[in-house]
Hints:
A: 13 helices; B: alpha/beta; Rossmann fold; binds magnesium ion
Amino acid sequence: MKDAAAPLAAPHADAAGPLRRAAPALVLFAFLALIPALAEVWGGGYLTSLAMRAMILALAASALDLLIGRAGLVSFGHAAYVGLGAYVTGIFITEGMASVALILPAVIISCALFAFITGAISLRTSGVSFIMITLAFGQMLYFGASSLSAYGADDGLTLWERADVFGTGLLYDNLGLFYTLLLTLIAAHVAASALAASRFGRVLIGAKQNAERVAAMGFDVFRYRLAAYVIAGVVAGIAGFFLANQAEFVSPAYMSWQRSGDLIIIVVLGGMGTRSGALLGAIAFVALEEGLSSLTHDWRLIFGPLLILAALTAKRGIAGLVDAPEARR
Amino acid sequence: MTTLLMVEHLKKKFGALVATDDVSLSLNPGECHAVIGPNGAGKTTLIHQLSGKLTPDSGRIIFNGADVTSVPPHIRAHAGLMRSFQITSLIPGFTVLENAALAAQARAGSSFRFFRPAARDQAVNVAALEALDAVGLADRAAAMASELSHGEKRALELAVALAGRPKALLLDEPMAGMGREESRALTEVLVDLRHSLPILLVEHDMEAVFALADRISVLVYGRIVASGTPDQIRADPVVRDAYLGDEADAAVL
Ligand SMILES: Nc1ncnc2c1ncn2[C@@H]1O[C@H](COP(=O)(O)OP(=O)(O)OP(=O)(O)O)[C@@H](O)[C@H]1O
Ligand SMILES: [Mg+2]
């Protein structure tokens, strides 16, 4: 037996220390934390709401990256969970049950259940079939929401108040909502990084690269993937909770396949299976959307080629440029 | 001693091709049972059925007293029936240690653990390093699996199977594509293992087969045409005709 301690310290072939690894995310979080103050100076709540939009997208995208980047499961229906979380929030508030003690459990349970059932079916397939079936389940929810005539149907549902946090009114003003969202995003980021290095993450990542071998080792790959699918659904649902509160409005459009496509774009642009990819991707996405749409109405015509260029030149997305080098996953 | 692995009247067809034709064989504790045969004889197909990748059309597979004929691969592996692959099957983006550690992790409690870093799991790391040490790869623990030489990959292929602490090993041509030296080194590794760990060995390298096997079965067109001790197989005229006829192998015999 060799000395067990030596190679165990750096089994990822990660030369970078913990500070260097955390640095890009720390900088981004610090930048985000300063935005309300910056908005104060430039006299616009607009910047704050843009940043909130980016953070909500980052939260949903970090969940999607658990599937795409870590597990290798390209879900094309992930916006459905954002929409489901938003609708549950909207409906509860409309029905006078505005307490987060009621809303959040309801969001979590409904998203977990929908993910569990549709995941158990979708995960029997792979590749393009998986993309198509997750798309189909997403559209199912989209049309379901569109037909909710009691809650605005196609037109969506306007909310007259935000969720109540144990009588504190924390989310009632944009500053409270902003920092609650930021803290949630930080927690999600820390959890996602831990998960990628955990036993569970190792099984998921291993199975992405070679599912047959991982099964031959004794792992029921399906169960691990289903668990990841449920986790990703729940986190996206929480993003939906914030979306409903921020926009004070919920709409079937949140669930459309275009929104699911946006989330995939964010994950790819930011860098699949990277530490800060979802964060970087979401900020870049919102910034590009903002910048380009002020130039031209057909901003997607510019955005599309730009994205293809990014995907071709930087395989690990924006994160590949700023993250500490990581083992190839 | 009771038979650890028992295969009864196994049959598998691919369309009109009978890849496994009424195969019965057994593996006893402390035994190395080699299955030899020409290319396309159905050796890998047999291993696939034993590991659960393929389901036989008929017949039974009994492992450790339980009928596992239609049990999925991960449950068989969990029960201690571990295989290696003829075509190297590793996790290329993992380090050598991580490849073995993942296999060890499968046998070290639940992997539904989401927060603690797996890399700091000492029990798992020690088991993985032991397996690497057994095949002579311990000093390559930190290398990426994708960066190994062919011979090293074959050694890791075996180490991954060992790290799962198997009760029995199914090895599909562990020496495939290896040079003579590497092949001899790996034979040494298996010599050390074979009495503590029952091995069903599929191999083309006759030097290795005759060095390792307690029993040899000869598979031709999906059928076992002869089975016996190495001496009996060496002397069998049918086997010489069907398989051991060519000069290279005759030289070994
Ligand atoms: N999935 C499959 N579908 C159809 N035919 C197959 C399949 N797998 C194997 N075969 C055929 O079954 C026969 C046995 O193949 P197998 O791979 O088991 O042979 P083998 O003894 O392992 O050969 P080798 O020594 O080359 O590894 C071959 O004729 C092969 O072409
Ligand atoms: Mg073969």
